[in-house]
Fold this protein.
Amino acid sequence: MQQQSAIVIGAGIVGLACARALAVKGFSVTVFDRNVQASGASVRNFGMIWPIGQPTGKLYNRAIRSREIWKEVAAATSIWCNQSGSLHLAYSAEEWQVLQELEIIFKNENRDVELLDAATIANQFEHIIQTNLYGGLFSKEEMLIDPREAMQELPIYLEKKYAVKFFWNTCVSKIVNQTVCIEKEQSFYKADIIFVCTGVDFETLYPNVFAQLPLTKCKLQMLRTENCLEKLNIKTAVCGGLSLLHYNSFKAAPSLQILKNKMEVEMKPYLDLGIHVMAAQNDKGEITIGDSHQYGLHTDPFDKYYMNKMVMDYLQIFLPVSETNIAETWHGFYSKLTNGDTEIFLSPEKGVYILNGLGGAGMTLSFGLAEELIDEIV
Ligand SMILES: Cc1cc2nc3c(=O)[nH]c(=O)nc-3n(C[C@H](O)[C@H](O)[C@H](O)COP(=O)(O)OP(=O)(O)OC[C@H]3O[C@@H](n4cnc5c(N)ncnc54)[C@H](O)[C@@H]3O)c2cc1C
């Protein structure tokens, strides 16, 4: 029997996860990306593989499966990955109460978490700021990768292991009858199945379909330090109290609303800009710090210094990183569903599927999600 063929449009993490899952199923896979290398959300993020942010059940299981695949890929390549865990810190009684509740809930769900008091944190994570520290929730489950490196290495891995073909610098301008059209070259490629994984580009392929979807874009500002390893080895990914309002899994804590009410009064400018603060250090000692969240189909292109300053000011509560250590700032965009769903998966025409809308969890969920969806349809 002739081998079935697949085309994936977009070499971000969603596209590469689909390419992998299709190749595992025996498809001969070709990937097109309009840039010379991935340069969208998938290289602009923290590199946090973050089960703790996912609610128990389908999403948490998907995150764990994705982490397994990241580990497999890392073991077969030079991609750095570190199951460093995560540490959510409490600097108020209300934050501490939420962490205490989460410890009980998460332990009942068999998650690998442990509440640490301030003295234990001082002992294990010497750089965490002790002033006003109540304690923290340490979870062993989170993993860090360096997205810039990983998104360069993954295509090479897929090429070598599964003979996936890549066409870079190649924008797909149209799809008709299971055939993709590269207008620039006047060339056409046909496949049995086509996946459209084009991230925040809602305008090129199926613009009318995208226009009907409850999708928006989110702009996030980010910062990265120079190599800080000699002064500061943070050992795990760290988050302040604002992050407790950000992830759906934390909604399980009965006292979260009390914390939210307090922050709405005390931290209103932060909440208005969707700022919560996380820090992740890579193997080169660089610490990626962020972020803000501004939603809308058309956000302005300019980064706001004052927003980065707010992030850095808040960071001083828990981590002594000076602004003078900042080597880079940038912003990224991801697509986000406005109806609370966690992804869009639909077929706009025979043999073509759109996968999009993974929001702030694409690095955490894509590998597992792609496997599930491709299992369902082929
Ligand atoms: C600042 C920031 C921090 C984040 N932190 C994390 C994190 O720590 N952990 C986590 O799990 N998630 C995180 N996320 C979310 C995650 O990065 C995204 O969910 C994910 O990268 C989205 O992947 P994607 O493949 O859909 O999009 P992208 O990475 O944007 O890829 C889309 C690709 O499609 C290509 N393309 C578009 N149109 C065409 C066309 N017509 N023809 C050819 N190619 C085309 C583009 O060139 C691009 O390479 C973060 C996101 C941001 C922005």
